[in-house]
Amino acid sequence: MSDSAASEAPNAATSAATAAAAATAATTTVPRPAVAPPEPWSFPVGTTHDLPNGLRLVTYDVPGQYVLSVRLGLPISLRDEPQDREGVATIMARTLDEGTAQHSAEELARLLERKGVSYGAGMSDAGLSVDLDVVKGNLEPALDLLRQILTEPVFPEAEVARQVRTRLAEIEQERSVAAQRAGHEFVRTFYARDDRSSRPTGGAPETVSAITREDVSAFHARHVVASGVTMVVAGDLEGVDVLPLVEATLGGWRQGPSRDRFLQRPAQLAPDRSRIVLVDRPGSVQTELVIGAPGPDRSVDGGWAPYPVIGFVLGGSPNARIDAVLREEKGYTYGIRSSFRPRRAGGLFLTSGSVRADSTAESLRLLVEILDSGRNGFSDKEIRSGVDFISKTAPGRYATADAIADEAISMALDGRTTKFTTANLRDLAAVDRSRADGAYERFADAAGLGRGDTRAAGWTIVLVGDAGDHREAIEGLGLGEVTVVSDAG
Amino acid sequence: MTAISYPLAERTLDNGLRVIVSEDHTVPNVAVNLWVGVGSRHESPGRTGFAHLFEHLMFQGSRNVASGEHFSALMDEGARLNATTWFDRTNYFETVPTGALELALWLEADRHGHLLDAVTQENLDNQRDVVKEEKRQRYDNVPYGSALIDIYATVFPADHPYHHPTIGSMEDLDAATLADVHDFFRAHYGPNNTVLTLVGDVTPEEGFAAAERYFGALLPIERTERPRHAQLPPLGEPARLDRVGAVPNDRLYITFRLPVDTTPDYLACSAAVDVVAGLASSRLMRRLVRTDETAIAVGGWTMGLVDGAGLGAVTVDVAAGADPEAVEAAVCEELARFAAEGPDEAEMESVVADTERSWLSALASLEQRADHIGHHALLTGDPAYVNTFVDRLKAVTAEQVREAAGRWLAPEARAVVRYLADAGAEVAA
Questions:
Q1: A177 → closest Cβ in B142, B185, B349
Q2: B148/A487 Cβ within 8 A
Q3: What is the ipTM of this complex?
Q4: Which of A301, A439, B104, B266 is most buried by its number of CB atoms within 10 A?
Q5: Which pLDDT score, from 0 to 100, does residue B425 have?
Q6: What kind of fold does domain A276-486 have according to CATH?
Q7: Min Cα separation A446/chain B (Å)
C-alpha cells in the first residue's frame, strides 16, 4: 500500500500543557486503569541442523505466519574485494539472479514471480545476506530457484554491465541525498584511510566502472560456498518438513574451504577522526548532521544491555533528551535519533537527523551538550523508561516471520544465536541507573570524549549544508576546527 | 495457496462508534487502531495541511493527559505507536502488551473526546514549526522530493480534493488559529466518525466491553459531510509539467486518473500497471531496462482512494545519454500495445501470486492487519475485505484488465511530470 509510506506522521511529542476551554462532552471521566505487567518472554527457540557441506540450517516454527522467511548469511568480507575492484561483491550479489545455467535473467524473474517469491541479496560489513519470502505452499519450488541462484549463476556480460551502470547511477543518487552524503563523509572521516570501512560498501565510480563479468564470476566461485553459511527458515511450519527440502536443494552446494560463520577483524579508526567536516551544499533549506564516536560491541565488559537503554534515553524516542529540546522546545527539527550500532568487533554510537538551516550552529551546540550530558549520569526514571520500552516491546517486535529470521541471521553473522537475544532481555531487567552511568562512562573513556583541547574532543561531526552561511558560526562554538568539503568541480 | 480467513466481530456503540475485534492469541499483544473519517480531502482552499497539523496536536495533551504523556505513558508499558494523515482519513495506533490495552483505550478516549481542554497557542506554534521541518526534510531537501505534489496538481483539477497534498501549504499553516483547531475537532472528531479496531490477544466480548467502558460516554458529533465526488473521467488530453534542476538523472512520472478503490475496474487497472511496469518481469522492465538500455529503473504503482478518483503511475529513471522524449514515446507505445492485446496467462499468474504474497505479508503483523481492517471498515464499509481481496483480484479476467487499461491508462489520458537534470547545475548541489 503506497499511501501509508507517503502519509504524514508526527513521530514525536513533549512539553507542558494546561487546561484551556470547555470540551464537547461534559460527562464524568472513567478512572485511569492500572496496567497488569506482562509475563516473562523468550525469543522463539530454533532447531539447528548442520549439513555435511557446512551449511547450518536453523528453523523457527511460528504458527500463523503464512509467508515463510528464508534468510542466508554468508561470512564474506568486503576486505576480500581487490582494492581496484571495490563494489564487486555488491555487483555479484545483484547479478546472482540475472541468469543461471537453466534460465535467462528474464525467465528467472518471471519464475520467481509466478511462485510468489520475493528475493533479494546485498552486502554489508557483516557479510552477504540473501533474503527470500514465499507463501508456505511454494517453499519447495522457491528453494530450487534459490539453489540455481546460489550455485549456478552465469553472470551474463550484458547483465553485469547493466548492474555496473545502475550502481554508477546509484552513486550519483546517493551523493544527491543529504543523509547518504553525510553517511559517506562520516565513514571517510571516522575510519582509517586504508581501512575498507572508510569507503562505500558498493564501491566508488573508478572501481565500479572497472568491474567485469570475470571479476564477478571469480569472486562468486571463491566466496559463495556452503562452508560457514547459516540459513534460517521462519514461519508456520506445520506440515512442512524443511530439512529434507533443504538437503535436496542446497545439500549439494559446494563446500569450499573451511571458514568461521562470522567476520572477526575490527575496523581501524582514523588517528584524526575527532574533527568537524562540513560538506558544502549551497542553498540547503536544512542541514543534515551526523555525530558519532566509537562504541561497544555485544561482548563489552559490563554487558551489552545498558547501551540500547542509553541510546533510547538520549535520542531514541520522542521524549528523549534530544527531541525534548530540539523538536518540542525549539521546533528546529522533525526528529533526531541516536543509537549504539554494534559490529562483531567494536561498534559505533551515532546520532543523526536534519535541522532548519538557520538553526545549524545552535543545534550542533545543543546536540554536543546533550550527548555529553550522559557523563553527568541518568535518572532512575529515564533508565526505567528505556528498560521498560525495550523489554516490553520485544514480543511484538519479534512477532513476525521476517523479524524473527532477520534477528536470527544478524545474530549468526555476529557469531551468536538468538539465545543471546533472550539472555540480553533477561539482563536488561537488571539494568539500573548505576549500571547505565557506568556503561556510559566506559564508553566515554574508550571514545576519548572530553579528552582533548576542544569541547567536542572524541566526536566525529559531519554536517551537510550551506558552508557560506554556517561555517563561521560553527567555528565560533569552540568545538574544533571546521574542514569544508565541496563536491563542485 | 493459503485461504485467508481472519475472524472479525463487529459492534456499534450507541454513540455511533464502530468497534471491530479480530482475535489472535499467538502473541500477548493487542493492536489498537482508530481511523477517523477526516483527511486532507476535507480541507478547503486557504486551509490546506490542517488535518495533518491537527494530528500532531493530538499528542500534545488532553483533559487528563499532559503534553507528551500519551507517548511516554504508552512507551513505558511497551507500546509502539504513532499516527498518520492522508487524503481520505487520519489514523492513530499503538500495539501494546495485553495488560496495557485498557490504558491505551483510556488515553485514546481522553484525546478523541476531550482534546480541546488542553490545546494551547504555544503547542500550536511549536507543532507548526515541527511540521515545517517535516516538509523540508521529506519534500524540499530531497531530490525528486516534491514529485508527488506536482503529480497531484497536474493530474487532478484545481477544485478537486486530491489536487493539494496532505502536507499542505506552509502559508496556510501560518494562518491557522486556535479557533480553527476547535472548529476542526468539533466538526470531525467524534465516535460516529471513527472506527476502533482491536486485533490480537483479546476476545470480542472483552474488546466490546472495554470499548464501551472508555468510549461509551463520548457524545456523537453532528456530521455535515458532503457526499463523495462522482467518478472523475480520464484526462481528455495529455497534461505536462517539467521541473529542471539539480537531480542526479532525468525521471519521468507518467500518471493517470483511476477509478475509486476496490472497484473491479480499479483492481483491473492495478493489475495492468503491475504487468506493464510494476513487476520485476514487467513489459517496460524488459524493454527499457534490459533491451533498449534507455532506463536504469522502471516502477509502477497505484493509489486507491475513495473521493471520485484514484491514481496510477509509471515511473522511469532515464539512463545517462538517453532521450527522455523517446523513452516517454516507448512507454506510450507499450501502453497502447497492452490495451490492444491484454495480459497473457503468465502475466496474470504473476500478478496474482505476487499480490497474494505481499498481502499475506502485510497481514502478518497485528498492527498492519488492524490498519487494513480499520481502513476498509471506514472507507469502503467492508472490513472483511482483508479476507476477500485476493479472491476478488483472482476474479478479474484478462479481458477486464485489457479493457480497463484501454480506458484509464490510454496514452492520451496521461499526465506527465518530468524532473530533468539541469546540465549546467552541479548534481549534488
A1: B142
A2: no
A3: 0.95
A4: B104
A5: 57
A6: Cytochrome Bc1 Complex; Chain A, domain 1 (3.30.830)
A7: 31
